[in-house]
Amino acid sequence: MITDELLDRWQAGFADASLVPYLGPGALHDVVAQTHGGAIPATGEALILAMNKGQPMAPKLMYEFPRAAMNVELKRGRSAVTRFLDATYGATPWTRAALHDWLAEIAPPYVIDINRDSQLLETHAHVPHLLVQGCARIGGTEWRFRLYAHDGDAYTAITPEQADPALPVLFKPMGSALPTPSYIASDADYVDYITELMGGFAIPPFLKQRRRGKRYLLLGMRLDRDSERMVLSDIIHGAAGDPAGWALIAAPTAKERRFCARLGLALVEATVADFLAAWQMTLAAA
Question: What's the confidence (pLDDT) of residue 1?
Fold first, then answer.
C-alpha cells in the first residue's frame, strides 16, 4: 500500500536527487500501437510471443525472453533477433506511457530503464543529457556500453572522458533502437554483459561515482527472473539507506520477497497505476 508517508519520502528523494527511478516492463502497461491498438510487448512472455508471431514456444523457452532469443539466434542468427527488436521498438509508433509523462514532470537527474523502447529518450528529446546504452559481444573495446551526449537537438557518440558528469543521465542497460540499435537480448548477450557489469566495464566511471549512496524506486519491475535480478543487483551496487530502496510489486512471490530482503529493498504491494494515482492525489491536495 502506498501511504502518505511513503509519498513524502519519495518526493523528498526526487527533490534532492537521492532517489533514482528504475523502470521495468510494467512502466509500459498502458502503451499500445497507434496503428492496430495492440499492447507493446514489454514483459518476457509478451516479447516471446511477438517474436514467434503470436505462437508459444516450448515451456523451457517461455520461461524467460533471453532463452527464447538464444534459440532464435542459434536457428536464424543474431540478426534475426535484432531485426525483431528494431521492428518492434524502432519502426512501430506507440502511444505515450503515463509514467513517462510523470518523469517529464519531475525531471530526475538519473533514470534507469531496462525496457528497450525509446520513450525515455523522447522524454528528453530537447534536454541536454547523457545516454548510456548497454551493448554486448563487441570487439575493439573493453567497455560494454555506448555513450552519447545529447545537446538538446541530436546525439553524438563520446568517450567517458568527454562526458559532462553534471548532465542528466539516462541508463538503458538492455539497449534501445535509438540512436543506434544495440540490445542485450539473448542468453549469450546477458552472459557477456553481466560478466562485464560485475567486472566494472558496463558502467562509465563517472556514473559509478554518481550512484554511490543512492536509493532506488523500482517501478514496473517483477523480480522473479534470474537475468533481470542479476542486472539489478550490479547496477544498484553502492545503494545506501534503510531501506536502500522500494520495489512496487503487486502480490509479490516468496522468491521476490527473499530477493528484496537480501538487497535491502522494501516491498510496496502496488502497481505503477496505483503509484501514479496516489502521486496525482497528493499533488491535487497540496
Answer: 86
